[in-house]
Specification:
Layout (H helix, E strand, L loop, with lengths): L1 E7 L2 E14 L5 E3 L11 E3 L2 E3 L3 E4 L9 E4 L3 E17 L2 E15 L6 H10 L2 E10 L5
Length: about 140
């Protein structure tokens, strides 16, 4: 989202905000067995697993006992970046800028995708704020 507002020719406000949401869930896990096989389907074997919430228990040897556990590979990622710039040309060629930049990033366990929940989780993420001031002065006539 981008907004440009010219209050006067010398005073402007620009805003830029970019939300990003991504979620991933896995329904089938595979193990590489013959990576160079000519037939693609022969390169992997499906590994049976039991979903234990935060962990997946894997039965790599297919004997019914779970011999390996890994963290759940699913993800729920949210990010919002924004910039707000106030620009004031206080005399011809001389400009004063006030800038506020914010970044919010959240990473959570995978779940069903929901825009509402994504925005809620993003609002709970700790923000990184940067404030800057820039002054340009024109010495010419």
């Amino acid at each position: 989202m981008r907004i440009d507002l010219a209050i006067t020719p010398e005073l402007t406000i620009q805003y830029y905000g970019s939300p990003f949401f991504s979620i991933g869930q896995f329904s089938e896990l595979k193990e590489v067995t013959h990576s160079m096989d000519a037939k693609y389907e022969n390169r992997f074997k499906i590994v049976p697993y039991k979903d234990q919430g935060r962990e997946y228990w894997l039965d790599r040897d297919n004997h019914g006992d779970y011999d390996l556990h890994i963290d759940n590979p699913g993800f729920n990622y949210q990010q919002f970046r924004s910039n707000l710039v106030l620009r004031w040309e206080y005399r011809p060629g001389s400009t004063l800028y006030f800038v506020w930049s914010q970044d919010r990033t959240g990473y959570h366990q995978a779940g069903p995708f929901s825009f509402g929940d994504g925005y809620k989780l993003l609002g709970e993420a700790y923000p990184g704020n940067v404030f800057m001031i820039k002054l340009n002065f024109w010495f010419g006539s």
